[in-house]
Here is the input.
Amino acid sequence: MNHVMVCADFPGATEDQAKSIQKWLNQRNWFRLSNPGDKLNNVWYGTFNRQMLEQDCRDMAGRNFLEAAKEHSSSVKVTVLWSSHKPVSKELALIS
Here is the structure.
């Protein structure tokens, strides 16, 4: 699988717009990495077919977030990170 993390800000979005954007992205298999009520966390996670090229995954992620902003009358600032391996869980990460 291709694993994609996206840092996305929707500046100026109202709380209702933010909820609608999150629902829209969830329906497209994007999941926000946060605790309920955590408004500061803007990191999203999604997976793509293994046969897709890295650039295709990045392009699709960008299109999804741009479309979400357009659908909900907002703007978006996006940074896309890609990996061919699943990120390590917090429990397995070592900090030195």
The helical segments are 15-26, 54-71. The chain has a mean pLDDT of 81.
